[in-house]
Structures are given as structure tokens and as C-alpha cells.
Specification:
The protein is mainly alpha-helical. A two-stranded antiparallel sheet has the order 1-2. Strands 3-4 form a two-stranded antiparallel ribbon. Helix 1 runs antiparallel to helix 3 and helix 1 packs antiparallel against helix 5. The protein is elongated, with a radius of gyration of 19 Å. The two termini are about 30 Å apart. The C terminus is likely disordered.
């Protein structure tokens, strides 16, 4: 459920980035809520030459990415989500470098998206690898959150499994 929430948040942030970009294209005097000053500016990042890849806005790629992630999670393909989140993490590191050192700006929306991508990577990693490692241990104390009651809001109970083989 947490991964789905992160995908929705990422989609909404990308949608807001697209909205700001389009508003700025229509009116050069548009001042977005995320534009605080010259050093903290979303539109400065969006209108830079790095705000587009192959002539397409990065926010469109973001929206497509988060929709794909959400659909894959709905279909229970968490492994694929992990690999996609690894790519998005690498892309976020690259874009953060560009933003800080080339554009020389701090974009609130961009940084929020970077945080979403980091969390998406961490929690998809935990979902794919951490549970498998725990199941192979000799002594297991873990929290089961909705594994048996998929698609519900119930929280599983604590359990202890000793001497698993």
C-alpha cells in the first residue's frame, strides 16, 4: 500500500510540474507557488534546457513512469517496480547534479520527486529482498502488514517463527 501511495504522490508532483510549466509558457510573468526567489525556483529548473529530454518535458516522463509503477503494483509485479525504481533513482541523482551544479537552483517540486524516488527504491527493495531474507533466518520476528489480507486495510499480527528450515 505504501508503494502505491508513493506512486500517486509522484504522479501528482509530476502533474503539478507540468501545470507550472504550461502556465509559464502561456504567461512569462507567471509566478508559481514553488518560486520563492532566484535560487529557489521551480520554473527556473523546468524552463532550463535540462527540463526536457528528446524535446519532451521531464514531467510527462514522470507522469508516465508513476502510472506504470502503479499499474505494476496493482498487478503485484513488485520485482519489476524495484528495477524501475533503481533506474528512477539513478535518473534522480543525475538530475539533482544538473539542478544543483549546472542550473544552480533549488527546486522544491524536483526535490520532492527525488525523495519519492528514493523512498520508492527503498521500500520496493525491502518488499522484494528484505522479506525473503527474513524468511530464511533461523529466528524470525516480523510484522506482517496485510500480506494475507491483500487489498484490505487490516494489519496483520506479530508472530515468531523459530528454527525455520
Amino acid at each position: 500500500m505504501l508503494l502505491e501511495i508513493l506512486a500517486v504522490i509522484g504522479f501528482l508532483l509530476s502533474l503539478y510540474a507540468f501545470y507550472v510549466e504550461k502556465k509559464f509558457e502561456a504567461n512569462n510573468k507567471y509566478h508559481a507557488a514553488c518560486d520563492i526567489n532566484d535560487r529557489v525556483s521551480c520554473t527556473k529548473a523546468f524552463k532550463s534546457k535540462y527540463g526536457h529530454t528528446f524535446g519532451i518535458s521531464n514531467s510527462i516522463f514522470g507522469m508516465i513512469f508513476y502510472v506504470i509503477v502503479f499499474v505494476l503494483l496493482f498487478m503485484n509485479f513488485t520485482n519489476i517496480v524495484f528495477y524501475l525504481s533503481t533506474l528512477s533513482l539513478l535518473g534522480s541523482i543525475y538530475l539533482a547534479y544538473i539542478l544543483y551544479f549546472k542550473v544552480k537552483s533549488f527546486c522544491l517540486v524536483c526535490n520532492a520527486i527525488y525523495i519519492v524516488n528514493i523512498l520508492l527504491f527503498v521500500f520496493s527493495f525491502m518488499s522484494v529482498f528484505w522479506t525473503g531474507r527474513l524468511k530464511n533466518s533461523k529466528f524470525l520476528l516480523t510484522i506482517n502488514i496485510g500480506r494475507f489480507w491483500k487489498w484490505t486495510w487490516k494489519i496483520g499480527i506479530f508472530w515468531i517463527e523459530c528454527f525455520l528450515d
